[in-house]
Amino acid sequence: MDTVVAAPRALLGRTITGPAWVRVRAGRIVEVVTGEPPVGAEVLADGLLTPGLVDIQINGAVGVDFAEVDPVSMAVVTRALPQTGVTRFLPTLITAPVGVVLRQAHDVLAASAALPENSGARPLGVHLEGPFLSPKRPGVHDPALMVEPGEAEIDALLDDEVLAGALRMVTLAPEQPGGFEAVRRLADAGVLVAVGHSDATGEQTRTAAEAGARMVTHLFNAQRPLGHREPGVPGVALVDERFTLGLIADLAHVGPDVCRLVFNAAGPRVALVTDAVAAAGMPPGRYQLGGADVVLTEDGVPRSPEGTIAGSALTLDRAIRNIVSVGVDAADALASATIVPADAIGEPTLGRLTPGAVADLVWWDEDLRPRKVWVDGVVVYDADAAVVPAGREPALEVVATAGQ
User: Which Pfam families does the UniProt entry name for this protein (predicted)?
Assistant: First the structure.
């Protein structure tokens, strides 16, 4: 049976237009039309209809660290994320010995496979942020656990039968010994390679792009900075159109003016990410990131006990509102959390309202807060429902975070 959802405005491609309506059949969008809806449509009285949000860097949320996940805790995350508009996400694992990372990845995939249908947001595989990083730019990662991406280490990833097809993204420092060859091998295997936690020069960053790297992980953070003569990682990323730019828009990792600068320079290539950790959606306290302690204080920014920023407590809907607040057009901000990340990881049926796309939808109110969310055409979150679908826990946004 078809479902028709109509809204006064909708994000079609990278443009907000309306009125418009979409027809959904068997979990897919089969028709998208601008104009008045047909009889029998569910007509949304106000607000905006968009594709579901896609977060391709998230370490955990609502008290759950993906480095220590099981089917029950994975289900907690998948039920919570739709409140923030997220319908698809890429669980991210930080630096650990290769053998440990493989075990953690297996656990993530097993927990993902055990999810019941219509349980909420859906995982997309695994993103490994390490261990092939630069000890010069560790951030909160443990330099003692970092290794060079040698042939044996890359073999361990690509020859793992459980990871086959599920290893979607690897963040590495290409300037490390063996780094450029690792980029080539991973890219040839269909893995999105991102430059991150890297001391690469501008020239080395371009060489990584030549080898097949196509993304920069959390632009400006934990990488050789932009200089007026040596552009470093961000300088090249901002002008090299081969790169998609991951941006943590909590306005703490990257300040408001620089966020606006990034959009001015490379808006169509920006992918908003949360880099959220278990502290996201939780009150101040002590949480875990890759087995290490992370402290969330009243300022809403998780930090190591030594004071280093450790991921974020950001939600993707808040990132969109933050970017709009610094002067970026809402359509551009929304595209950066839908079609851009979907395209970056090679998912052409996600992040868009178009025939053939997966029927992941978000209805937003006038303040850009999600009111209703569909995954595969099924309602998984309804802010106005007396009983929230899919066993939704209480509100995810418990703690005030930096920004709007």
Answer: Amidohydro_1
Note if 343 is an active site residue.
Answer: no
Q: For residue 396, is it within any domain? A: no
* 16 and 96 part of one domain: no
At 161, which CATH number?
3.20.20.140
In Å, what is the CA distance from 268 to each residue of 217, 272, 333, 384? 16, 11, 10, 34
218 labelled binding-site residue: yes
pTM: 0.95
Query: Which residues lie closer than 8 Å to 280 by C-beta, 6 or more apart?
Result: 60, 61, 62, 274, 312, 313, 314, 315, 396
pLDDT in tens, 179-220: 999 999 999 999 999 999 999 999 999 999 999 999 999 999
3-state secondary structure of 58: strand
229 is in an annotated binding site: yes
311 labelled as ligand-binding? yes
If asked whether residues 10 and 94 sit together in one domain, one would say no
Q: Residue 215 is part of which domain span?
A: 52-344
In a domain, 42, yes or no: yes
For the CA atoms of 283, 61, 129, 188, the dihedral, rounded to the nearest 10 degrees, stands at -160
Over residues 49-81, the pLDDT tens digits come to: 999 999 999 999 999 999 999 999 999 999 999
**Residue from 275, 317, 332, 360 carrying the catalytic annotation:** 275
Paired strand residues for 88: 54, 122
Q: Is 106 marked as binding a ligand? A: no
